[in-house]
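Aim 2, interim progress: modelling of the S-adenosylmethionine-bound target.
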Amino acid sequence: MSEEKPIALETRGEAADGRRFSPSAERNRDVILSVFRRHMPGAGTLLEIASGTGEHGAHIAPDAPLLTWIYSDINPPSLASQSAWAAHLGEDSGLTGPLTLDVTAPDWAPAGVPERLDAMFCANMIHIAPFTACEGLFAGAGRHLAPGARMMLYGPFARDGEIAPSNAVFSDSLKQRDPSWGVRDLDRELMPLTASAGLSLVEAVEMPANNLSVIFEKT
Ligand SMILES: C[S@@+](CC[C@H](N)C(=O)[O-])C[C@H]1O[C@@H](n2cnc3c(N)ncnc32)[C@H](O)[C@@H]1O
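Predicted structure of the complex, ligand included:
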């Protein structure tokens, strides 16, 4: 039996062609799409960090025919699922990659990441990874996003020391699995990373189940 640390906290389904299905991605993909349509570009090149099963890209990219969506992750089974989604939806979907990308690697920039990106997207990673992943995410956004380009994060957050009871319980359960994991505080932990990355907060959009979509813009 594998002793590997889990990368997600739910049971996932898998199709014969290797596409994986996450119940949580299926639940929240439509509300995420509606925020994406409102705040993110419909054209250009987007890098998704920690694409997981690949379902967010598979749902959003076909909705934005002029957008090239680059999948990435560190986890080989997740990368395989992303390849399967890209193959399933075909070239017209705009889905490309996946790239093996660890945001904790110093100055990450694997081959295939263009020097200048028009957008970045990352859902449900920063609380299920050490804080160095969050730092690496922001540093990379600072290096790669073009002026005026945006990064969208989705997941549970605390706000200035306040956390919803359900998120507090979730955060405690994450910390029991790994003390370096846990729900992050947007104001106290993420905002301090924005200055050196040259990012400003555009909007924190309230989402169902005490989640947020958070939009940043490169100045
Ligand atoms: C809970 S899953 C979320 C997947 C997907 N974004 C979603 O919302 O369904 C967390 C993902 O973060 C990835 N991950 C964890 N640490 C990472 C790192 N250092 N660099 C890149 N990806 C990482 C895991 O492999 C996993 O795919």
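DSSP finds six helices and ten strands in the chain. Residues 7-8, 22, 25, 49-53, 56, 73-75, 78, 101-104, 123-125, 128-129, 133 surround S-adenosylmethionine (CB under 6 Å).
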